[in-house]
Design brief:
This is dolichyl-P-Man:Man5GlcNAc2-PP-dolichol alpha-1,3-mannosyltransferase. It is an enzyme of class 2 (transferase). It is a multi-pass membrane protein. It is a single chain. 63% of the residues lie in helices and 0% in strands. It has 139 residues and is mostly helical. The N and C termini lie far apart (67 Å). The relative contact order is 0.12.
Length: 139
């Protein structure tokens, strides 16, 4: 058995291993075949914006928000706020307001309404944000 394994390993090494086999089986492109254009690479900030905003839309549309939800979406709020055109004082106020509301226990209809209002304001600000919202903007 040991000899068989060594024999197979030696044959693979002589053929160039797995890379050699893959390279041998890959057909060469035809002369008249057009190559697909390379797609532009999305910036990491844009990908983060897409994921965070999709998650945030889910939060806004949730029927109830438990305190556990805040632990997995609170870190997305700063990026989302800074992708809007809101003044910095409004951004910081919304962030602080959401933090304070989630620290009130038990929740009341007033705190739930205030949280919904903050979320809707952020969502509207994101909807009317400039197109480059996921780019390298830092201000």
């Amino acid at each position: 058995m040991h000899r068989l394994v060594l024999s197979v390993q030696l044959q693979e090494k002589q053929r160039g291993g797995l890379r050699g086999r893959v390279a041998q089986k890959r057909p060469a492109p035809a002369a008249n075949q057009t190559r697909l254009p390379k797609l532009p690479q999305l910036p990491a900030a844009h990908i983060l914006f897409l994921v965070f905003s999709g998650n945030f839309i889910g939060i806004v549309c949730a029927r109830t928000l438990h305190y556990q939800f805040y632990s997995w979406y609170y870190h997305t709020i700063p990026l989302l706020l800074w992708c809007t055109r809101l003044p910095t004082t409004v951004r910081l106020s919304l962030w602080l307001c959401i933090e304070v509301i989630f620290n009130i226990f038990p929740s009341t209809p007033e705190t739930s309404l205030a949280l919904l209002g903050c979320h809707l304001l952020i969502l509207l600000a994101l909807a009317f944000a400039p197109a480059e919202r996921g780019s390298d903007r830092t201000h």
